[in-house]
Design goal:
With 164 residues, this protein is α+β, with helices and mostly antiparallel strands. It has helices spanning 8-18, 27-40, 74-78, 101-104, 140-163; strands at 44-50, 54-61, 67-69, 86-88, 111-118, 124-132. Helix 2 (27-40) runs antiparallel to helix 5 (140-163).
Length: 164
């Protein structure tokens, strides 16, 4: 079970300020998601935002769902350590996720890597993440690229909010 961080109210306020939840698909975000899947060689890539009860997908490749409950979200764990990419090489061997419905059922997650989306105010709102149905690893160049993509998504989100 996921325990929200103590500063979740500030994080949620930042998410509200950006006013991106439940917004329409946008090509620029979809381009980053496709690049993430391509660079990491995964069938699934997402740009996620974690609110109080769910993780919502701003962009997605290889997944039909548009959101999942927060308590099942790998990304809710990833935002707990905003300064690093969270990597799960085999979810069936990880005590945090072995009984997770996203592991035991559709989409059958085995591998996950998520780079937190950290705003200029220091709030981790979600991730750029890649997912596979097979156990695997990720190399240093792929990790760095995911981090760059996450930084670019934050720039886009903050610029989008400024233009409103």
């Amino acid at each position: 079970m996921h325990i929200p961080p103590q500063d979740d109210s500030a994080r949620l306020a930042e998410l509200d300020r950006l006013a991106v939840l439940d917004s329409a698909e946008e090509q620029a975000y979809d381009d980053i998601t496709r690049m993430a899947a391509d660079v990491c060689g995964t069938p699934i890539a997402l740009i996620t935002l974690v609110d109080g009860t769910r993780q919502w997908f701003k962009s997605r490749v290889g997944m039909q769902a548009t959101q999942t409950p927060r308590e099942h979200a790998f990304c809710a764990h990833a935002i707990q350590t905003p300064d690093q990419v969270m990597v799960v090489t085999d979810a069936q061997q990880d005590d945090r996720f072995v009984n997770n419905p996203l592991v035991t059922g559709d989409p059958n997650i085995r591998f996950y890597a998520g780079a937190p989306l950290v705003t200029t105010s220091g709030q981790a709102l979600g991730t750029v993440c890649v997912i596979d149905t097979e156990p695997r690893d990720i190399d240093a160049a792929q990790l760095e690229t995911l981090q760059f993509m996450a930084q670019q998504v934050v720039v886009m989100l903050e610029e989008r909010a400024r233009k409103r």
